[in-house]
């Protein structure tokens, strides 16, 4: 792994670009400042993909990214395997002039990162900045128009700049052409010092001076004639444009890496990566669109081939159990299963994955939930999954497996999984970026009602009763009835069986219940319309009459 | 200074309480996660106190506190001076169960804190939590009802708890009464481990076991008879209530210090402290009320005597200039002025302020913008200001000055400043917590118009033109006219003088302009109503007809 800091970004950028360019695929992972910004955006088994996108967008728009991990998998020329070039970027939103991001931090997410020794100081002091297109435009307009230095929008220490200018003013009145004043950067004010801002300000306020930094990084102010000033200004204009370009590039930071990814459109691999994709879009590209299908279309245009190892591993359950006797879709567990001796020997010529030279830190040291480490695990799992699916159950290409299998051949095998992204706790278990989402494979909803008339359901009690049977979400319909979404069929079945003849509650399938209610709903229909009462009240009446 | 961390809070709390109890007054300071949450909430010279409160409330509600500094000034028994007991608290919002604060961080504020070497890791890993009354109620309800452990609301690592319970389940089926299973806390999972949650869960799932922690901090699970289980449960109920109380107290954290401050109602001293007071109210007491006067009334009930050294120092300008030849209301500068030899010898028996034993860190080391350090500077300034104002210009009590001056006598002198809080860049320069705010002392607004018909005002250009004359805010009224609020009379006067006969713009006083417009407004009045056009359009027409 190679840690990319604000201070080393510029020097490392060319090698990052080269690694992406040479890679067969790039695995990514992101650490966020939070998951949800309020309770209403929590995932639920009742969510359709559109609803989930709306919820995630509500959160992602206000949250930010703390860390980005990128592992470029490059074919190893000396073996049939891969070399991973893994970069870990601590990130922090750019802050300069009008671009001053406000983002939400969720207390529990901070706590979560603490469990894995996350370094918050590294983000604050050495985080690489980033901008999306809208922020970049704002910044460029501001730099180009000079608004940043008009006194309207800048956020530097005004009193410090004022004191520097007073010093210059005192000298200015009694100085003659050719004389120079040196503004010394002292230890005490080094942190308030900004060469660019000070020079711009001094030049603006004093018509007959010129400024430059000397070899000690101090600023020299020289008295010049108005003619000389014009000449220098003209000459400096070209330099200034270069400097402004440098400033823009440094604030663009990680977005430049995103743009390399976009340019080469290498297959992207992630694990349970829906939120990662939303962050990628919102923070480094453009604000997330309101419409879910627009998002899917635009994302597909950006990255035409995306693979989610969480989604893929669900489909490999039987194969993995057959090989290793165990199964999990948790990233670390999945890595361990695929890295196991039994998995390695199960199929011939399993490709070797090594850390490229200079990227060995993760060789000796685990770092779960460090974005770079998770990206590496995910890429590693992807290589092994590709090979297992290509060669395990077929005699196809057995000859090819003896030498390095071309990556395109792997991708052909992975075609059924391309652009299918895992979605947790929703009506469907994955979305399809390049087409219509699949239909729901969840069991139909259950209805829970109180057996006794007038008795009220305690939603918390109900959740406690149901949760031992698996993942469920409960939504109160009326004080006496609730809708239950179960995560899978065996859970729904177990609930139906367990509560058959229960003393307090009656559990029915939603369809069956709806059917039996049709007549009554028709009867009550008149009241619904004429009374203009809310749906809740009507359902409440229905329920009471039924119990 | 004494740093109070999450791990040392419980041990230090009694001494903090004692220091507050013994203090004559307590100086405070706060570091925030941001200042404004969006551009619309930025302060402006157009703001009335109600408008400013609304803006600040919009921001403070969503922001959080990173650090709180508290310096308790206790009369030194051996001298006529004071001993400062200064505590610095890194803070972090509590995160447990349903209490999971989401707060906004402003990128430029992080950058600001970086300039002063702020330790973000200390906040994340060792920050003291806090809760306001609403959050405390939510937490207590949740702990008392057991909802936290019903599987509905908890945010612990479910798969970890699941794996612990599987281990217990495997042992449970084949174990007999009296047998014990030890759950070892390993290094790898130590961070996922939560004794309270695990024990609650195991006891809930297995009817015939009992759990306890052993001397190695592992959890022992013992098979018991149902009768023994009932006995142990009854006995544990008392213990559990104690444990829950401990949990609540630890999550309440810094709020307990706030409650001590509230209980003793010692005079509170701060520097430019309006935002500090809003944070104090919102984060440790109750969500800020929508109504400004309700806020003032409630705050006054909480802390009947509050002093703002920024507001006070503005009023002492002449005195300080006479004594030291210099003046500033910046906290560090003000401290230096008041700490100077000239200030010390200007008045007899100036009280000495020392760091109490064990609190000496700031003696040898400056730490600007560390909340504890700023609180100390502020308290120090307050003591000297009290003495200067009491004894400098009067022969009154000259005898008393020879010995320790009772604090009440200082407070009597400070009465005119009590509960007057500085307000920056607004129509007034301070608010009054215990009464009606003072009338505005700012100059009247100016109107700027284009001289040429059809010419548009460039607001940025205008701000650039005006800013050399002092602090101004500009609000575009129409494309051809703008309202200008100047920070003081000399600035307004200078602008009027400088732009007299300006080629492009015409500057007039607002009142004068209004007067000259009255006839025209009456003429145009019909259009206003019948056309139903918006105010902007009407003003625009007025302006065009005038230019």
TrEMBL record, chains A, B:
<dbReference type="InterPro" id="IPR036397">
    <property type="entry name" value="RNaseH_sf"/>
</dbReference>
<keyword id="KW-1133">Transmembrane helix</keyword>
<dbReference type="InterPro" id="IPR006941">
    <property type="entry name" value="RNase_CAF1"/>
</dbReference>
<keyword id="KW-0812">Transmembrane</keyword>
<protein>
    <submittedName>
        <fullName>Uncharacterized protein</fullName>
    </submittedName>
</protein>
<dbReference type="InterPro" id="IPR051181">
    <property type="entry name" value="CAF1_poly(A)_ribonucleases"/>
</dbReference>
<feature type="transmembrane region" description="Helical">
    <location>
        <begin position="521"/>
        <end position="542"/>
    </location>
</feature>
<keyword id="KW-0472">Membrane</keyword>
<dbReference type="Pfam" id="PF04857">
    <property type="entry name" value="CAF1"/>
</dbReference>
<dbReference type="InterPro" id="IPR012337">
    <property type="entry name" value="RNaseH-like_sf"/>
</dbReference>
<comment type="similarity">
    <text>Belongs to the CAF1 family.</text>
</comment>
């Amino acid at each position: 792994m190679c840690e990319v800091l604000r201070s080393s970004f510029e020097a490392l950028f060319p090698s990052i670009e080269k690694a992406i360019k040479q890679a067969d695929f790039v695995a990514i992972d992101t650490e966020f400042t939070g998951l949800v910004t309020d309770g209403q955006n929590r995932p639920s088994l009742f969510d359709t993909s559109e609803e989930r996108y709306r919820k995630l967008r509500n959160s992602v728009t206000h949250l930010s990214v703390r860390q980005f991990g990128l592992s470029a998998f490059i074919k190893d020329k000396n073996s049939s395997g891969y070399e991973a070039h893994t970069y870990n970027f601590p990130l922090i939103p750019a802050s300069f002039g009008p671009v001053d991001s406000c983002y939400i931090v969720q207390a529990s997410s901070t706590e979560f990162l603490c469990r894995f020794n996350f370094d918050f100081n590294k983000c604050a002091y050495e985080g690489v900045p980033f901008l999306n297109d809208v922020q970049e435009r704002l910044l460029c307009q501001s730099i180009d128009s000079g608004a940043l230095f008009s006194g309207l929008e800048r956020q530097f220490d005004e009193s410090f700049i004022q004191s520097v200018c007073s010093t210059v003013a005192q000298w200015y009145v009694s100085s003659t052409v050719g004389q120079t004043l040196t503004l010394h950067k002292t230890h005490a004010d080094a942190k308030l010092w900004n060469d660019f801002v000070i020079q711009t300000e001094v030049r603006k306020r004093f018509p007959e001076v010129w400024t430059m930094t000397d070899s000690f990084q101090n600023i020299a102010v020289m008295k010049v004639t108005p003619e000389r000033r014009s000449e220098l200004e003209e000459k400096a204009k070209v330099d200034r444009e270069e400097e402004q370009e440098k400033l823009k590039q440094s604030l663009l930071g990680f977005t430049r890496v995103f743009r390399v990814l976009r340019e080469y459109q290498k297959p992207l691999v992630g694990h349970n990566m829906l939120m990662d994709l939303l962050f990628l879009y919102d923070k480094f590209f453009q604000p997330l669109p309101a419409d879910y299908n627009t998002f899917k279309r635009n994302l597909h245009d950006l990255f035409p081939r995306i693979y989610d190892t969480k989604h893929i591993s669900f489909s490999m359950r039987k194969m993995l159990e057959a090989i290793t006797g165990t199964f999990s879709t948790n990233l670390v567990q999945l890595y361990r299963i695929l890295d196991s001796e039994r998995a390695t020997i199960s199929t011939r010529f399993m490709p070797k994955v090594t850390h490229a030279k200079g990227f060995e830190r993760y060789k000796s040291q685990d770092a779960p939930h460090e974005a770079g480490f998770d990206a590496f695990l995910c890429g590693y799992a992807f290589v092994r999954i590709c090979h297992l699916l290509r060669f395990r159950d077929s005699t196809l290409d057995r000859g090819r497996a003896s030498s390095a299998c071309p990556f395109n051949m792997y991708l052909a095998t992975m075609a059924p999984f391309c652009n299918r992204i895992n979605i947790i706790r929703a009506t469907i278990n994955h979305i399809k970026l390049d087409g219509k989402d699949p239909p729901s494979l969840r069991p139909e909803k259950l209805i829970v009602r109180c057996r006794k008339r007038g008795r009220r359901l305690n939603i918390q009690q109900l959740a406690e009763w149901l949760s031992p049977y698996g993942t469920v979400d409960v939504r109160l319909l009326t004080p006496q009835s609730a809708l239950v979404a179960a995560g899978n069929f065996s859970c729904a079945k177990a609930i139906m069986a367990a509560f058959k003849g229960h003393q307090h509650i009656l559990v029915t399938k939603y369809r069956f219940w709806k059917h039996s209610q049709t007549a009554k709903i028709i009867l009550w229909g008149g009241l619904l319309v004429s009374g203009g009462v809310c749906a809740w009240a009507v359902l409440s009446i229905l329920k009471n009459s039924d119990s």
